[in-house]
Amino acid sequence: MLRISLAAAALALASCQQAPSASEPAATPAFDSALVDAALQDLIDQEALAGGGILVFRGGEEIYFGAAGHADRGEEKPWERDTLAAIYSMTKPVTGVVLLKLYEDGLFELDDPVADYLPEYSDVKVYAGMDPDGEMILEDPVRPLQIIDLMRHTSCHGYGWGSGPVDELARATEALDPRKSLQEMSEDIATIPLECHPGTEFVYGVAVDIQARLAEVLAGKPYEELLIERIIEPLGMTDTGYFVPAEDKPRVASVYTPAEEGGLKRGDNSGVYSHWPQKPVQTNGGHGLISTVDDFMRFALMLQNDGSLDGVEILKPETVAMMTSDQLPHDTMEDYGVIGEKDGYTFGLNVSVRTTTVTAPEGRYGVEGEYTWDGAASTTWWVDPENDITAVFLQQTMPWNSVGQDAMMRAVYQAAGIAE
């Protein structure tokens, strides 16, 4: 039973809770909102994004909100504070919290085999190459696929984005077809060989979608119902869900993509859940939620506040500490994949965790201990425990890029008097 990481997290949390100094605390510098206003408008002027909004809290208090550009240019619809945006993979941390609530309920241990609860994974195989006849060589995993593997992307389940035979098979199964149930999705994924042995590589993919199916099996109720009951209603996230009703459709932002002649054009929004006329059958754990800056800020503040918000406990402090600390099995890791390409980051449970402070003049400013995860439409959020800063930045620019994120993060820290 895996309780070592939780105990270590609790110890780390306790070590940070020192007695207050007898001297008066240093005053927090004033926040220079004009710097963030200018940085956001520069992004619009440069056609880096069509529109967006950013909300920043410090010390549990709002210190900034700004919006610029359009949610839809053709309709001349400005980006507002209540604009609804598809947050894609920012769904993943939310799913992680749902699953960790069930962990706190004692329904599973992190090192439990996934197959104990989802029997379709009882005979999972690992891809080991191709034979002379063009058939896949498959082998048994060196150890069982564990729940913690799903939460740190070491389960070796990809998205099928590559060109290899496993990717081709993943695409052919169409496991993430929104017309399929989570059960059908999970059963489809279980037929696809793993890209590596569990615990040996960071493979970004459908692991969090499997988490959603696992959660509904553990709780004995549909995942969306569980999400509403455990997260959305307790936190008052009234604008967050997998579907936007007709009366709220005017608030939905459109996705924008690069135009051949330069700048941006309105993308094909037919596949974006926020534009759908009906709710998808598949309520994914890895993507699909639609939200606002205020709604997602409530989720982020809950984590920043050690698992509670406005007197409502969602997670215990030690569980949040575990979630937001390094959980990668470095002794068995052979390839760090996309997390290895993110300078100064490791991975916790459903969030990335910064291991170094970066103050270089260019690129993404960051502070050790910060945790975050982005969405495919270039959205992001982050919690910086050291400086007590929490921010949510929404836009709808695809494919994903970090231009706006980097600019906004640096501007926030400059405005707060932390970065030069």
Automatic annotation (TrEMBL):
Entry keyword annotation includes NAD: no
Keywords: Signal
Residues annotated as domain Beta-lactamase-related: 36-407
Pfam families: Beta-lactamase
Signal peptide: 1-21
UniProt cross-references to InterPro entries, sorted A to Z: Beta-lactam-related (IPR001466), Beta-lactam/transpept-like (IPR012338), Diverse_Enzym_Activities (IPR050789)
Name of this protein: Beta-lactamase family protein
Organism of derivation: Parvularcula mediterranea
